[in-house]
Structure formats: C-alpha cells, structure tokens
Design brief:
With 508 residues, the chain is mainly alpha-helical. Among the domains are: 40-100; 397-504, no CATH class. The protein contains 24 helices and 5 strands. A 5-stranded mixed sheet has the order 2-1-3-5-4. The longest helix is centred in the C-terminal third of the chain and has 27 residues, at 366-392. The mean pLDDT is 91.
Length: 508
Amino acid sequence: MKENISFFSSRAAWIGSLLVILILGFAIRLYDLTDLPLDFHPTRQLLSALKARGMYYQTLTDVPAEERTFAIQQWKFRASVEPEFLERVVAFTYQFTGEELWVARAYSSLFWIIGAVFLFLLARKLTSTDGALASTAFYLFLPYAIIASRSFQPDPLMVMLIIFFWWAVYEWSSPSPSGKGAGVRGWAFAILAGLFGGLAIFIKFVAAFFVIGGGLGAVLGRGSLREALKQPQVYVMSVLGILPGAAYVIYGVFIAGYLGQQFGGRFIPSLFLDPSYYFGWVAMLNLVIGGIPLMIALLGLFFFEDKKRRFMFSLWAGYALFGIHFNYQISSHDYYSLPLIPIVALSLAPLAELLFAQLAKLTTTRWLRFSAFCLLFFGIFASLWNTRAQMKSVDYRPEAQMWAEISQKVDGYNLAGLTQDYGSRMAYWGWRNITSWPTYGDLIYHDDLRGAQRDFEEQFANIASKKDLFVVTDFNDLNRQPFLKGKLDGYPIFAEGAGYVIYDLREE
C-alpha cells in the first residue's frame, strides 16, 4: 500500500493554491489584451476575425453600405473547414462591446482556464492533489500555452472539450466511490462523455484522434475490448460522439457544398521518406513543450498504476496517430500540437506527486513549509514575468494605421501583392481586396504536393496582368523569391512608406 504523504496537507492549502494558480493563469492571458492578434499565427486569427466582423456587420443598419457589403463578402467567401461557432459567439458579443478583437482573446483564455479545472479533477483522480496541482500549473504557465491559448481560433475551445471528455470518460471507467448507484452513475458519465466528445469533434475534426484515444484507454482500463462491446453505454457514447461532426460534414459536403475542397493536402505520403518531416515534428515539439519537459513526461508514464498507464498510453497513441495522419501540418504548424499540452501535463503528475511527498518529509516545521511555498510561487512568478516581457516587447497596434494608410493611397486601383497573411491584414484594417502572390512556403508546399511550379512568367501574368498596382509588405519573403524581385524592379514605384512599397504595373 503506497504511503499517502501530501505537501498540500490541508484542504485550505490546496484550494488556496489552486485558486492562486487559476487567477494567475487568467491574469497573464489578459495582459496586453487590446493588442492586435498578430502575435500568434495571424493568418488563422484574422480568418476568424474577418468572419466575426462579417457576421456582426450583417446585423447593423447604421454603417455605410459599402463597408457592410465588404465585411459580409469577406465572411462568405473565405474558406470554412470548422463550424463558425466561436466567430458567432464573438459576433454576438460585439453587439454589446462594439467590434473589439480582445473579446475573442478573452473567450479563448476563459476556455483554457475552465479546461484547467477539469484537468485538475482528472489528474487528481489519476494521482493525487499534489500531482494535480503541478499538472494544472504546467498546463497554465507553459510559455507557449499562454500565447497560444488566447488566440482567435477554435483550438483552445477544442482542447477544453477534449479535457472535459477525458475527465468524463475516465470517471465512467472508474468504480463508484460509494459502491452504490453504479448503474446510474455509469449512464450519467457515459452521456456526458459522449456529449463532450461529440462537441469537441464538431468544433474541430482533428479532436477525433484525442477523443478516440481517450475513449479506448478508458474502455481497456475497464476490461477487455470484447466485454466493452457488450455494454450499451459504449454505443451511446459512440453515437453521441459521432453525430454532431457527421451532421456537419453531411451538410457541408452534400447540402451546402462548401466543404468539398477543404480536406485535401493534409496527408502527403512522400513525407514519410523525407527526413525533414521527422526533424520538423521534433522542432515543433521543442517549440511547444521543450525537449526536457517532454522527456520527463514520457518517463512519467512508468510511474502510473497499470490501469491508469493504459489510459495515458492511449492518449499518447492518439497524438502519435494524429501526427502521422496530418504529417505536413504536424511538422510545420506548431499549434497542431496544442492538444499535447494537457497530455504532457497529466504525464508529469506522478513524478510531481513523488517530489512533493519527499518535500513534505523534509519540511517538518511551519517555517520550512512556508519557505517551500514561497520558492514554488517565486518560480511561477519568474516564468510569468518573462512571458509578460515577451508580450510587451512588440506592439502591433501601429500596423492598423499602416494598412489604413496603404488603403488610402491605392483607393480606386486593382491590387496584387506579396503581403502578410494572404491579404487578410489589408482586408481587415484597409478594407480592400488584394490578389495575393504565393509565399515562398506555398511554392515549396505545392511543389511537394502537386509537382513542379508553373512557369514564373505565366504565373505572374495570371496574377498581375489585369492589376494596376503590386503591394509589397513582406520583404523577407520577397528576398527569397529572386524571380519576383527582379521582375518588380523593372516597374516604377507608385508609392512607398514605412513598411511597404507599391509598384505601378501599368508602366514598365
């Protein structure tokens, strides 16, 4: 029988510590709240921002007709893979706050904090209160998690729902604490797990890997797979988990038709023979988690009891299969590894439990215990201060003025350009459409996916032949495309300013 020694020995100590962790976790995410959403994958954030604005402007009658039409157009023509749930919530909130992008940042941060509460409950079930507090702190204070979890995209909401599902399905697989009412309890958690899992998949289809992984781990922890297939609760969970996402796919593909072209290019078999895939994946893991925490988390799997280890192995297996299927994105898009953060946090819990148990033995007086508390929170404060400094180091607000300035100078002209985020910044702050020249990364990707790049002159003619001006704001990418740079040097400069150059395509 394992000796139960807790560093947070009293109920007041661990509840107070949990509240401090949650409050600090939310506070750091609200820092610099009104800065523009350009700090983390701005292309993806601006996609949601443009959609939310279009939904909001559709409800307005006291704005200029041109602005209203443009905003709705931007919403309608941009790609839709996931349901526009978060965008609609934000657009609804705009009716009370006005069009303020910080609304989305606040919602995403809140989703992450709520997820932390259920992560604590799950980690406590898997280990102890001490392990759960450490797990929650890692989940909230990991520097990458702080930045990523306040972004305007569905991923923080998806992660929250995945954690809800893991908690519910693990509770379903565990015996009733009282030993009574197991049937009612089992059905309650089976229905909750099905609903949470279904909502997670509905919000973003990739959640299916993590839902299925957690579900299989819970089922195998309860008994054999053959026995599980005899339980009606398993089928209820499965149906509830499948229905929302399946209904959305059927509607989007066969009724509305807007999903038909959105699922290609996510799996490239040739990448399995390319070392860059594996090195890219490792680079993303280093960026999101860090090599040392990842190693410690994997070692932590050996410290779980057998049933709990099977559950945790299933979570890791779900992530591994996810990375194999989405092999291009997992090696190039760091936020695709966002659901790994709660998995790593849970995997660290048993080691933290051992550490705190040893610390409890060594801090036998109130002064020693208080000193240890102070050191723990000093470490958290130091990490948060560093993240705060990172947020403060860059102010993106002047960019809105720059795009408005460009928009005034190009008013009345047809535009092409090499700009950040495929023209989304021009669309959002400049209220203008621009035909985007492909980035260097796009050229490499399409070369891998579909064969050799088209002839440059033909490509330039197709994009720019009917345009008046060519706007360049992404000079780093321009320097990586010598053919384009040389071509543009042959045209006169129409206008230039801090951060942009506009070429006149009408004269050569």
